[in-house]
Specification:
This protein is an alpha+beta fold. The protein has a 5-stranded mixed β-sheet, sandwiched between helices. It has a domain of 159 residues: Ribosomal Protein S8, Chain: A, domain 1 (2-Layer Sandwich), CATH 3.30.1370.110. The protein contains 9 helices and 5 strands, in the order αααααβαβαβαββα. Helix 7 packs across helix 8.
């Protein structure tokens, strides 16, 4: 084979290869042309393609009317009328008996550190008072006055009584200590006796049993709340 023939064969093969590649290659992807700026400007606003239209929130919400609130308002819980009456009674008591009476030594008598103290109002039955003395009424709440000033001790006692009335508790205990080393002696113990006699909610009190603090603590018996009285009436009515 001559050099010319070899050259012609090489060109023929090259041309055939190019033809084969052209047939096998995927068709050329045609990209969509975006509308030109001049074309866009010439369109009305509602004819502008969506991807290029700027819609404001006010435009979207135009003509929309707010819905009226139709939720049922929540009812506020009413305060227990019994608790309200008790609070009013205490306010009236404080008006009649000023705080200075509770905190002054002018109106009180001091007791001895190891003295047994006791008191009951005229309406308390002897059997009830006896049970109180014997510790048969289990204390349902308590307060400890150790380390308290006279004023702070008073507010602790007052809060204890208030809390007991609100929860319909009958018997509580106050831990005041004997006060053997206080000046004057038995300071807080003497004040507790003084305060309890002035509080109309208290119907009796007595020195605690040894297992509850002995001479350093005092049981306090309180009036029945209105709820307790209603329960007692229902029980008595069922027994008839």
């Amino acid at each position: 084979m001559s050099i010319k023939d070899f050259s012609d064969l090489k060109d023929a093969l090259k041309e055939k290869k190019q033809t084969t590649q052209a047939q096998d290659s995927p068709p050329h992807e045609v990209k969509e042309d975006k509308p030109s700026e001049e074309f866009t400007k010439g369109l009305a606003k509602n004819e502008i393609p969506q991807e290029e239209e700027e819609i404001s929130f006010l435009d979207v919400m135009a003509g929309v009317k707010p819905i009226k609130q139709d939720k049922i308002p929540k009812k506020k819980e009413k305060i227990d009328p019994n608790v309200t009456a008790q609070n009013k009674a205490r306010i009236e008591e404080e008006k009649v008996t000023p705080l200075s009476v509770f905190l002054s030594t002018e109106y009180m008598k001091f007791v001895e550190p190891n003295q047994t103290v006791g008191y009951k109002t005229a309406g308390v039955q002897f059997g009830v008072f006896r049970k109180l003395k014997a510790g048969e009424y289990l204390p349902q709440d308590m307060t400890d006055l150790h380390g308290s000033t006279v004023e702070k001790a008073y507010y602790k006692v007052r809060r204890l009584i208030n809390r007991a009335l609100e929860n319909n508790l009958r018997c509580v205990i106050i831990i005041h200590g004997k006060g053997e080393f206080s000046k004057p002696r038995a300071l807080l113990k003497s004040y507790v006796v003084h305060w309890l006699k002035l509080m109309p909610e208290v119907i009796a009190f007595h020195t605690a049993m040894p297992y509850h603090g002995d001479k350093g603590a005092t049981y306090v018996l309180l009036k029945k709340g209105e709820n307790s009285r209603d329960e007692t009436r229902e029980i008595m009515a069922k027994r008839r």
